[in-house]
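FAQ
Q: What does a multi-component entry look like?
A: The components come first, one per line:
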Amino acid sequence: MRSDLSHQTNQNMTLEAFADTIVPGEKRFPDDIAVAGASSGGGAVAAGALELLADPATGIADDLGAFADLINEHARAYAAEHGLTPDPELPPLVGLSFADRTALIRHLTSPTHPEREIWILVALFSNMAFDTGAHLHTVDAMAAGHPGLAAMGFAQPDADGLWRFPDYSYGRELAHLHPGTTSSGSPA
Amino acid sequence: MTESNGTERVDVLIVGSGFGGAIAAYHLAAGGASVLVLERGPWLEGEDFDHDFKLGSSYTRIFDFVVGDGMSLLGGNCVGGGSVVYFAAMPRAPRFVFDRQGSIGRRMWPASVTRDTLDPWYDRVTESLPVTRQDWNDVTYSGGLFAAACAHAGRTANPVPVAIDASKCTNCNWMMAGCRFDAKRSLLFNYLPAALAHGARIRPMHEVQKLTRNTDGGYRVHYNVIDDSDYRITAGSGSIDAKIVVLAAGAGATPVILQRSEPDLGKMPHAVGRYFSGNGERLNTAILDEDRVRDLLGLAKPDGVPYAASQVGKGPCVASWDRLDGARPEYTRYSLEQLYFPPGFGTILAQVPDATGPSWFGAEKKEIVRRWQSWLTIFAMTEDDNEGVFGPPPATGNAMRISQQMLGRGPIRYDPTPNTLRGWALADADVKDIMERDGLSRVMPWTNDVVGAYTVHPLASCRIGDDPATSALDDRHELRGHPGIFVTDGSAVPGALTVNPALTIAALAERAMPGIVAAARARGVNVSYGAPAPDGATSARNAVLPLLVRD
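Then the predicted structure of the entire assembly, as tokens:
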């Protein structure tokens, strides 16, 4: 790994590469290496995955460095097993291609892997960063154009920060009721 | 009241404030008993309920997500319990459910409980909340879409009865964070305020750990006080003596409390912490082709868009009950219900149709998440095999908490049997048949490979029955071998119901009340049964009084 970068910077790049594998995004800048650029638009990293993972509320913030080191060990072994020669200047996970990152994380989260609970937890929060922006108040995330909520087409709140949908129904009978329906509206 | 040794003392101590606890608190307090409710979660109401996904907002404070081995449980964690976080769908269980045999080869329900004998108690709850029928004008776009898809496939579909005040509902779909608009008729609006008016007290953030027995035949209830924001932190502890204990901590917690109490109380019935059912639950996500929605179903919103409205609504509005046919063999009957899960819960387990890479994460997953507004979630409630078993209890509570709030690792193990797997497969195939017909959508079930199977309706881990070998409670909900301990929550329900269980849990709790009152009287408590509905309505009460055999 690059000696001019701190261990923590390498760990952060590793966690970014992990989160980017869960919800991939476009590169943030031309020589972005943690984000592989496997998808258009922002992914988990742009959505704030590292901020969410580091939120003490997740309960795993203190373990992130250890997780990064651990997955780099797996990445190193994966590269050796597959005859890859990743750039020695990069954290091992970051040095893998998007396809290889995906294959490795698929293996680590598979039903029989002994560490699956760790990696599923990191995947879960990476995913949440994208589709809920759970490190931010949602009204602030919406105002800032949060990439995940925007990609999903999440509706804007009213001016008071609450959601209301006055148009909500097709307003007509769309199926016949089950013949056994009781007077209380329940199944017989 | 306080004893000379300083230990607080009440007639009835209730653990949990969901349906089983709130109904008990109301009837016992109204009848004259001194009642204290200990609730492990916070006490939120009205403006406390946030429209906010930020960790620490109301949804993480009031929800509990326990990951087990093969099964994850979602449940309430607040004053009002499940009623505060749920979607308020309140159908009665179909008649055949009460004749289910399940894994034991004979009828699993007590002989005294049938749909006919439970109907008067369903009526009590229906009057108390109240529960009302919805019409098609109440049905949301997603419910209407499911109904139209069912009709297109030659099926029927019904608006489900709900405990929602439609005049206050904004269809914001934040129900799982608690209702900001007081539209959901949770227990915060009926049984609980009525219990408080009769002198019952509720202490939030009090998590009961275990019971011990006192020399007078009563019980000492030991609790921890939980930190307001970091639920992993214990802020204190204490104990309270009671003549009667009503356990209603939920099917994921009640058996754990009893298991932890076993060294002090003595042997627990075999069925404590066994026969757990996830209500046979299963989810599918359909990704709609908007053009086909317009062309096949003739649907359009005022803006001309056919659907693209997964965010709009109020949980489940429409169910298909075509497979709730008592003539069909057990394990082949189920209901299908349109549902909504917010992002986070509702997206992580959804799978990519025809994925070439991983199905639940990655580049292809992101592409389907971009179409989230065209998603329709279909919820199947099937007949599982009561195959869940609780392992040894964690140090405190019902889980080893991972996050400050909401997320924990629990002792439940669930290895689905061929019967359960067959029911899920049948339901999946049926959803596919309805939703993929003529290219309407693409459908995939949620993966069980990430957090195992999952349930929002944990049941049966401390169930009623006639057979002591396979039921922890007698048909009066009293714990076998431990007189004076009653269980009235979802853990008392014998098995999967094929529909949303809240009304049945509540009806069973109502039905248990006269017996608990009688047990309290036998222990010297001056209490009587016969309170009207919380708002004073009397018709359902008057209908049950003649059914009771007077002591």
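Q: Is there any commentary attached?
A: Sometimes. For this entry: Chain A is about 45% helix and 0% strand.
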